[in-house]
Amino acid sequence: MAIILGTSTTLLIDGTSDGFQSVSWSISRQPNRLWQLGSWDPYRTQVVATVNVNVSSYAGALTSLNSDIIRPSTSCEFSPARKSIQLVAYACDPTNNVDIDYSDMYITSYSYSKGDPTGFGTESWSFQTWIDPNLSGSEFLSIPTPSHVLQGISEGQRSGNVTNLGVSFLSSGLVSGQEGSVSAGVPGLGNANTVELGIVNGIGGGSLEEYGKDGSSSASIPHTPLYVI
């Protein structure tokens, strides 16, 4: 098992290298086997390959995305909700060093959290892209990269009294509720917040430091690959 050294790991997102706390990644090749009668050998194995990267950072480390970017596709296009990611993770076993470099990784989710009124706000970003499986052999049918990647309607929620919770909504279709909790004891403190749910038209740029305030938010940005021959 390789041990990854964080102090030797470099991460660049759209040229930014400051403010990142942690990163995780996966390069996945998903097989779809076509089974046939009279044999344990599949007739063909169809393979789709994806790369996923998850990043946690201090609030505001990455550039926020406005309504020009977070919007549903209205034509056959590549969603603009993407960032360039370069990751080099140094492992104690040199054969397992990680080198990820993709100019177009699509943002699939975002969240903001400031749970401690005296603490700092943090953000989490999830990215995905499709790659060529690069498999050889007549038994494999490799699915190529998509012709287009369409963005769907993004929805999310936010609650708390932080000035910037990292998620903005369209004014239409916005609904709200309440949440809260309190426990017995001394001094018996609790909290109560308004929870808003709506259609997202902007993410990122949550407040890093606001003494006495807390809050959270989240948003999902769905993407669908489109294959056109």
Q: Give the uncertain stretches in residue-range form.
A: none
Overall mean pLDDT stands at: 92
Distance between the termini: 42 Å
Number of helices: 0
CATH topology value of the domain at 4-152 and 220-226: Pnp Oxidase, Chain A
CATH class of the domain at 4-152 and 220-226: Mainly Beta
- Radius of gyration from the alpha-carbon trace, in angstroms: 21 Å
Question: What general form does the structure show?
Answer: globular
How much β-strand is present in the residues?
Answer: over 45%
What is the succession of H and E elements?
A: EEEEEEEEEEEEEE
Q: What structural class do helix, strand and pairing data support?
A: mainly beta
Helix content: under 10%
Biggest sheet character: 12 strands, mixed
The beta-strand count equals: 14
Describe it.
This protein is globular. Helices cover 0% and strands 55% of the residues. The mean pLDDT is 92. With 229 residues, the chain is mainly β. A hairpin with a 6-residue loop joins strand 4 and strand 5 (98-114). The two termini are 42 Å apart. Strands 1, 2, 3, 4, 5, 6, 7, 9, 10, 11, 12 and 13 form a twelve-stranded mixed beta sheet that branches. It is built from no helices and 14 strands.
